[in-house]
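Possible regression after last week's pipeline update?

I re-ran a chain I had predicted before the update to compare outputs. Posting the input and the new output here so someone can diff against the archived version. Not blocking, just want to make sure nothing changed silently.
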Amino acid sequence: MKTWIKFLIAAALVFLTAGVFVYIFVYNKPHKDYEKASPDFELTAEELYQAFIADRSEAESLYNGKVLQITGQVDEVEKIDDLVIVMFAFSEGFFGKEGIRSTMLENHHEEALNLQPGDDVLIKGFCAGFSDSDVILEHCSFP
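New output (post-update):
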């Protein structure tokens, strides 16, 4: 057999093996269960919002990618298609209320929809960042 054919067969085996490893260890990796995760930080909704307003880069380095547990008064609850968002508002911006938007996990939709403005609530979720107007919490639940 010619040398270049042996090289092509060896290269194909290496790429096939690498593909199998990527599928098993990266693509097929289980997702984190945010509902059962313990919070990295516990603070009030206003403290979290003010941290991003005061020094965005410091707050991003501290809170982004972390599970946070926040307490505060609900301003409104929005239902948009299949999403339920609990809003904590702290200021009025060009496009409306600004604060913290918490996207709830599906099994907490009913409880979130029963909340009224002014209700005190405890929410746990994954901090996905700051959108120049709102702190975004995803995969939220009521602990």
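Follow-up from reviewer: compared with the archived run. The first helix runs from residue 3 to 27. Marking as no regression found.
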